[in-house]
Amino acid sequence: MSTTSPTPAPEVDPTASAVALDRDGDDASGVQALLRTAANAASLRAIVVLAIIWVIFTVANDRFLTAGNLTNLTLQVAATGTISVGVVLVLLLGEIDLSVGAVSGLAGAIMGVLSVQHGWNGWLAIAVALAAGAGIGLLQGSIVTWLGIPSFVITLAGLLTWQGFQLKTLGDAGSLNVTDPVITNLANTFLAEWLAWTVALVAIGLMAAGALVARQRRSAAGLELEPMLLTGVRLGAIAIAIVVAVYVVNQDRGVPVSVIILIGLVVIFDALITRTRYGRHVLAAGGNEEATRRAGIATRRVKTVVFVLASTMAAAGGVLAASRALAVNQSSGSGDVLLLAIAGPVIAGVSLFGGRGSVWAALLGALVIGSISNGMDLLGLESSVKFIITGGVLAAAVVLDALARKQRMSQGRS
Amino acid sequence: MATETQAGAPVAPAGAGPLLRLRGVAKRFGAVQALSDVDLDVRAGEVVALVGDNGAGKSTLIKTISGAGPADQGTFEFDGGTVRINSPADSARLGIAVVYQDLALCDNLDVVANLHLGREPRRGPVLDEIAMEREARSLLDSLAVRTLKSVRAEVGQLSGGQRQTVAIARAMLGEPKLVILDEPTAALGVAQTEQVLALVARLRERGMGVILISHNLADVFQVADRIEVLRLGRNGGRFAATGDQRQNVVAAITGADSDIAPATPAADTGGTT
């Protein structure tokens, strides 16, 4: 029991100067750092959710966790995941793009008409479809940034407009079967087994080398290093995930080219956001646009470019979807495409309030959403139940996001 | 009574000219004359507090210096030469940094990213995180900031005093000659206010000119060298920041011309001529 304590010991004298920063982090052991990181990583939460979903569906249906079905799953998520890459960028700004589904449909239609009705070269048709997406993004982004109209409204108008253009483009045909192998091969070819392993091992090697070089440079500069254990566990976990995934799909048809495209896009855009000045400005504008503007950054240009990238990715998703379906029709890109493309990243931890999230959430979120949809299909559930469950998962993710934001605000000053 | 000039600084000592010298600054918003014939001197290594009641023209005067709201009339001299300041870019080029009252930080980015926002160094096409982190550390070390746990902490997680520290440190990255602080201690607790005032004193030690806008006279007397009062858009008096001037400063702010006579307009303006 404490006895007399006349005056509580004064807190650290706030004005005292000491040159060193408080290096609290150095004292933490690797294990502590590991646990802390694990508790904070939104991507890890998504992986846990994914694991739970897989366990549930595996128990419910023994066909879920087979190589054949998992390969189907990867094929199913490629198009949505690609659209989601663009959605992540827009969400990072704290904006929304409701036109991505319609843009993907229109891009598919443009590509289909050029390829089938006009006999254009497949690559050229794809390029025009992507350019159309970019143009749409430029238009919508310019209206949002220069006229200050909420992106919600403009892209909602876009949703309807581009759907109309899609119907107009398809014309009387209504539906086109795409036969050009350049286009159909995108989503219907698989890497040979040796090639898949080569790609996987090169990727793992590059990742490990990159991490070690970065560590080396930080060490040389005399900066704090994250505990080796943390680096090791993270690299090891990713490497194991890649190896297992490649092994499993190789038991069936192999690694789909469309998935390689999606992962490649994720890697590129993740580097853009985390490693470049432009990406930093996107995050800054999503966090505090006024502060970003006062820092001398041309926020309107930064934002407009994001809308261009998002619509271009939506177009790319439309191309992949058409390739997988071997056709485009009046309902391409409609229905739940938009909802799922936005729900995925949000479930995987991209904040709707802007400034927080990773491009990898596009892939993870597409896997979560895709797994739910795939599993429910296997169980033969009715559409009504599927809608209700998918909607419930999205609502839960948004609630989690809002709760996390509230917690942050109560921790910080305001 | 015309005591205002007696206590204050000599107008311009022959040896060291002021870093910033404003003469006859005027600014009008429509029918409202926000500033008329305002003079202001700030020397290097000097903290000048700009005080005055709400609507006295403090923010307007600051905006004429920062370029956010250029003056209609008046001469501006900076570092010995006559200059024109028509935009924030002009003042930044001269070496004038402004720390705004509402901080202008991005809560979702870490301290390093906030410090370098808008002028990130690059290695080839990618951000040079290592250079940024080193620079951030050495800057914060040189300012003797020791309350930050990590330069990689998200700014949204910091306390008000820490955020203000980051905001001031950010203004320092461009090696400015003059730093303008707009209400840096508003909404801070006692300990945090002390931290920020200590930081202001350190800016002075580094030879920078500092203009401090504050409503809090205790802070002003603690850290400032000189107090410049604005009243109704005019110079309301110039005082040394010594304790015995406190009453006079309050009187100059409120216009109640202290001990002797009630204020007369003549006495008010007489001080500046």
UniProtKB/TrEMBL annotation, chain A:
The keyword Signal does not apply. It holds the Pfam family BPD_transp_2. It is found in: Cell membrane. It is a multi-pass membrane protein. Keywords: Cell inner membrane, Cell membrane, Hydrolase, Membrane, Sugar transport, Transmembrane, Transmembrane helix, Transport. The keyword Membrane applies. The chain crosses the membrane at residues 42-61, 73-93, 98-116, 122-139, 146-165, 194-215, 227-249, 255-273, 304-325, 337-354, 361-381, 387-404. GO terms for cellular component: plasma membrane. One of its GO terms (molecular function) is hydrolase activity. Part of the binding-protein-dependent transport system for D-xylose. Probably responsible for the translocation of the substrate across the membrane. PANTHER family: ABC TRANSPORTER PERMEASE PROTEIN YPHD-RELATED-RELATED, XYLOSE TRANSPORT SYSTEM PERMEASE PROTEIN XYLH. This is Xylose transport system permease protein XylH. It comes from Patulibacter medicamentivorans.
From TrEMBL, chain B:
Residues 20-255 form the ABC transporter domain. This is ABC transporter ATP-binding protein. One of its GO terms (molecular function) is ATP hydrolysis activity. Keywords: ATP-binding, Nucleotide-binding. It comes from Patulibacter medicamentivorans. It comes from the Bacteria. Pfam families: ABC_tran.
